[in-house]
Amino acid sequence: MPKPKKADARTIWDRRALDRASRVYPVENLMTRMIGRGSLMPKKFAKKYVAEDNTDGVLRFYFRKRGQRKIRLPGVPGSDEFNEAYYRALNGLIDEPKGPKLSTKNSFRWLCEHYFQSAEYRLLDKRTQHVRKLIVEHMWAEPLQPDSKGIFEDLPISAITSKAVRVLRDRKLETPEAANSRVKILRAIFSWACKPDVELMSSNPARDVAQFPQQGDGYHSWTDDEISQFEARHPIGTKPRLALALLLYTGQRRSDVVLLGRQHVSGESLRFTQFKGRNKKPVMLEIPVHPTLRKIIDASQCGDRTFLVTEFRKGFTSNGFGNWFRKQCNAANLTHCSAHGLRKAASARLAERGATEKQIMAITGHSTSKEVTRYTKAANQKRLARSAIELLEEGGPAMKVPTDKEWYEKRAAAEGDDEIGDGGDRRTMTLNLTKEEIAELDQPLNPSRDAIRAEAFEEAARIANAAVHEAMRSQTFDPSIPDNVAEFVANAIRAAFPKETDNV
Fold first, then answer.
1. Count of beta carbons in the 10 Å neighbourhood of residue 226
2. What is the rounded distance in angstroms from the CA atom of residue 107 to the CA atom of residue 112?
3. How far apart are CA 50 and CA 367, in angstroms?
């Protein structure tokens, strides 16, 4: 074993002497002796294909063989982990590098990756992009068959049929909303692929795959007792009470509530653009500030730009606010309540107090009445049941038709007919009812109106006009009496739509 030389407090080895010593001593013993003496590592070793790298001041060892990629060897020469890695590399047992998998051309994954680069996807909200990509990646990993090694990401585009889409949907049968999300996203991807300027697919196999019907009523709608319980736990002046008031008296989503601030107050109203769909279909609202809400805002410590702020005086994120409000509900022993349930509670309150769907939509910002109907279903049933029970009382109020005789007189005058009266010619009067005017006829037509689809009003108006004109020609009723006209209109609608009005 050669001895090193000392120079400037450093230990220097003679390379040629080490090379000669490596033929006599095993490499492991040689390294042990050098390490034990606290000396520097040699530059070359007897083991073949081992190279060292000390370019950045950290000594590393690599296995380098022509025709193979460079492999990092852990530990130091002579250690167990070093020897194990060395002999695996020497025998060609090379682990595949970890990283993103390259997609096969014209496969399902390849199609989705092209969609992720499209303008249609990149114009979506960042949150929507993130969720949509996660769902797609889960579909990639789904096996083609329960016991198959093949997965959907490698499925050729030509093999993607409606049956394949149904398989992906049915894999989420226990969570219908997740299953419907898969169908919705696949429809968007395949619809993009069928565009004339893309032409990656000739048809949309997800178009005719039905979504699962919605189960349940979604988020729990707060009752008045639950709201009172929360208010008792969090008095005015606290941040939880301010959050409750903003959610309840504006009817907005949590993504909107966390952004509301004094800059949105214009006179006696809140003016803002809803966060959801702000890039694609922005909805601008102007909602009067409820006196109770104003009182709570004035009594609370608000932020500079938003009413609600964290303990660090910064605005909430939507998810952060949801988690924080969840804790406030738990503190009030309302573990089944959530922030979105207050949006439903606001709609239900409006419905119980007689607000129409259009009025509720003006507050919530919905573009269709589908969600509003879901929100107010229980409230409408409660209100209608209350009015129905009142009719069972003896001596109770009889059903009245709150229409106005002057309305018919104005219609007759506008059409050039004689004014309805003792000397008027009722047989020549025409009543071309429009769908809006039919909607104005309240009781007993209102139940029929609620039961009929909106698109059926045109047909209802035609049938009602024909019935009224025929009755006037036969002189079977007096058109100057509003009750008679309303009765004929209601009966005509019932006859035309028996299925929708069988319970009216």
1. 20
2. 9
3. 69
At 143, the amino acid letter reads P
CA distance 420 to 424: 5
Tell me how far apart the alpha carbons of residues 146 and 118 are, in angstroms, rounded to a whole number.
33
pLDDT tens for the 504 residues of the chain, in order: 556 665 555 555 566 665 665 554 444 454 555 444 444 444 455 678 888 888 777 788 888 888 777 888 888 888 888 888 888 888 877 665 555 667 889 999 999 999 999 999 999 988 899 999 999 999 999 999 988 888 999 999 999 999 999 999 999 999 999 999 999 999 999 999 999 999 999 999 999 999 998 877 778 999 999 999 999 999 999 999 999 999 999 999 999 999 999 999 998 999 999 998 888 889 999 999 999 999 999 999 999 999 999 999 999 999 999 999 999 999 999 999 999 999 999 998 998 888 888 899 999 999 888 888 888 887 778 877 887 787 776 555 544 433 444 545 555 555 554 444 433 333 333 344 454 555 554 333 444 444 444 445 555 666 666 666 666 555 555 555 555 556 666 666 666 555 544 444
Place of tokens 């190279």: 51
Say if residues 212 and 168 touch (Cβ distance below 8 Å): no
CA distance 504 to 500: 9
- 3-class secondary-structure state, position 289: coil
Residues 6+ apart with CB under 8 A from 182: 135, 139, 168, 169, 172
Six token digits for residue 197:
């300027």
Distances (CA, A) of 136 to 60, 78, 168, 244, 280: 40, 47, 11, 36, 22
If you compute the radius of gyration of the chain from its CA atoms, what whole number of angstroms results? 38
d(C-alpha 504, C-alpha 497), whole Å: 11
Burial of 126 (0-12, 13-18, 19+ CB in 10 A): exposed
Residue with tokens 């590592």: 41
Q: Give CA separation, 188 vs 112, 116, 120, 433, in Å.
A: 11, 11, 9, 42
Which pair of tokens denotes residue 288? 């009067």
DSSP letter for 315, please.
B
Distances (CA, A) of 246 to 254, 258, 309, 346: 9, 9, 13, 11
Note the residue count of the chain: 504
**Cβ-count burial 327-338 (b if 16+ within 10 Å, e if not):** ebbeebebeebb
Under a CB-based contact definition with an 8 Å cutoff, are residues 182 and 112 in contact?
Answer: no
Taking Cα atoms as reference points, which of 161, 165, 148, 154 lies closest to residue 111?
Answer: 154
Token duo for residue 309: 């702020």
Spatial distance between the Cα atoms of 245 and 250, rounded to a whole number of angstroms: 8
For residue 9, give every residue at least 6 positions away whose Cβ sits within 8 Å of its Cβ, in sequence order, or none. Answer: none
For the packed helices 318-331 and 224-233, what is the interaxial angle rounded to 10 degrees?
A: 90
Please report, for residues 56, 81, 93, the alpha-carbon distance to residue 71 in angstroms, rounded to integers and kept in the order given.
18, 14, 11
Neighbours of 155 (CB within 10 A): 19
